[in-house]
Amino acid sequence: MHASDITPRAVYEDRRSLLRGAAAAGLGALMPAGLLAQSARPGVLAALEARKSTVPGALSVDKPTRYQDASTYNNFYEFGTDKADPARNAHTLKTTPWAVEVGGLVKKPATFGLEDLLKLSPMEERVYRLRCVEGWSMVIPWVGYSLAELIKRVEPLGSAKYLEFVSLADPKTMPFVGSRTLDWPYAEGLRLDEARHPLTLLAFGMYGEILPKQNGAPVRIVVPWKYGFKSAKSIVKIRFTENQPGTAWNKAAANEYGFYSNVNPSVDHPRWSQATERRIGEDGLFDKRRKTLMFNGYEAEVGQLYAGMDLQKFY
Ligand SMILES: Nc1nc2c(c(=O)[nH]1)N[C@H]1C(S)=C(S)[C@@H](COP(=O)(O)O)O[C@H]1N2
Ligand SMILES: [Mo]
Predict the structure, then answer these.
(1) How far is the CA of 205 from the centre of ligand 2 (A)?
(2) pTM
(3) pLDDT band per the 50, 70, 90 thresholds, residue 8
(4) What is the mean pLDDT of the segment spanning 45-57?
(5) Which of 19, 28, 36, 303 has its CA 20 to 30 A from that of 240?
(6) Alpha helices in the chain (DSSP H)
(7) Which atom belonging to ligand 1 lies closest to the Cα atom of 168?
(8) Would the pLDDT of 20 be above 70?
(9) What is the pLDDT of residue 190?
(10) Which residues 6+ apart lie within 8 Å of 238 measured at CB?
(11) For residue 2, how far is its CA from the centre of ligand 1 (angstroms)?
């Protein structure tokens, strides 16, 4: 690996925002704890070196969202439903030790400790657009490797058709687990061919550093052509199944959130249009909206997975 293949966080940050961050951190010492949690950046996290991905479509040329925005405007309902809640509350999440149990319809079920997962395959940087079902989007340089690498190791049986991803649900460290918003643990699912697609990422970091807790540390998936909620955070279990698994949002409101949840500007959410989106960090005086693209702009890479399917029906 060449030093030039490694992208440090600094390239994503203009000098002014770095200085602003440093000033906020310095001021923090004088502020009451509550205010500190809201304004200080999550601190310098450990570097996670990665080479640039060569997977087709993996390096969006869109300008990355500022780290400050990507790490403070989050959905992670285990820590509250407000966008600012995860950055404020997720510090209680304990990410070491951590293990991911991989089982179900596989030849070689195994529990992978985080250290082993980190070494399973070389780390790559993937700059993905992430489109939330709520109508906003971000561009985040993730660090990880294709989930397909892990799938290979456990050798799925012929009967395996789907994967279920289960997030941690620990009421002691996740204050809103137990709230009535969702059925806990948070669970998501993919069809096996979707999970094996090289763009489906097992992510451990972002912006060249380990994941902040509010973004799903220590390990999450990122599925860039699907609405953000498909990308489960803080995963502790992956199960291979024959039947389509239930998912947290589908159980909460089946008419609003289907199993597939591919980004699709022509299929509206029952309560709002999905035709446009607001890119976080771009708003200001004018609420600039961008046109949402089919499969979030990844149609060339993933369109064939859905050939012949009625996407109005399988939303
Ligand atoms: N366990 C868990 N995973 C989750 C969520 C959640 O509430 N709990 N929110 C989802 C939603 S709605 C989005 S848009 C993305 C946001 O990821 P980010 O905060 O890293 O941008 O995480 C997804 N993964
Ligand atoms: Mo979302």
Answers:
(1) 19
(2) 0.89
(3) low
(4) 96
(5) 303
(6) 15-28, 33-39, 67-70, 85-89, 114-119, 147-154, 192-196, 248-252, 299-302
(7) 1
(8) no
(9) 98
(10) 100, 101, 102, 103, 150, 163, 164, 165, 166
(11) 33
Considering only CA atoms, which residue is closest to atom 12 of ligand 1?
Answer: 229
For the chain, which residues make up each domain, given as ranges?
Answer: 3-306
Residue with the smallest CA separation from ligand 1 atom 20 is 215
Q: Whose CA is nearest to atom 5 of ligand 1?
A: 76
- The size of the chain, in residues, is 315
Q: What are phi and psi of 240, to 5 degrees?
A: -95, 130
Q: Which of 138, 176, 231 to probe ligand 1 with, by most ligand atoms within 8 A of CB?
A: 231
Mutate to test the pocket of ligand 1, among 66, 72, 74, 76 (most ligand atoms within 8 A of CB): 76
33-38, long-range: CB < 8 A, 24+ apart: 37/87, 37/88, 37/91, 38/84, 38/87, 38/88
Give yes or no for residue 235 having a pLDDT over 60.
yes
What value does the mean pLDDT take over residues 47-74?
Answer: 97
User: Distance of CA 71 to CAs 65, 74, 140, 284, Å?
Assistant: 10, 7, 10, 19
What is the rounded end-to-end Cα distance, in angstroms, of the chain? Answer: 41
pLDDT attached to residue 288: 82
Residue bearing the bigger pLDDT, 181 or 189? 189
pLDDT at residue 44 in the model: 75
Above pLDDT 90, what percent of the chain?
Answer: 83
Cis-peptide into 265, omega within 30 deg: no
Q: Give the closest ligand to the alpha carbon of residue 128.
A: 1
CATH 3.90.420.10, applies to 3-306 = yes
pLDDT for 114-173, tens place per residue? 999 999 999 999 999 999 999 999 999 999 999 999 999 999 999 999 999 999 999 999
Residue nearest to atom 11 of ligand 1 (CA): 229
**Token pair in block for residue 123:** 């780390």
Distance 30 CA to ligand 2 centre (A): 35
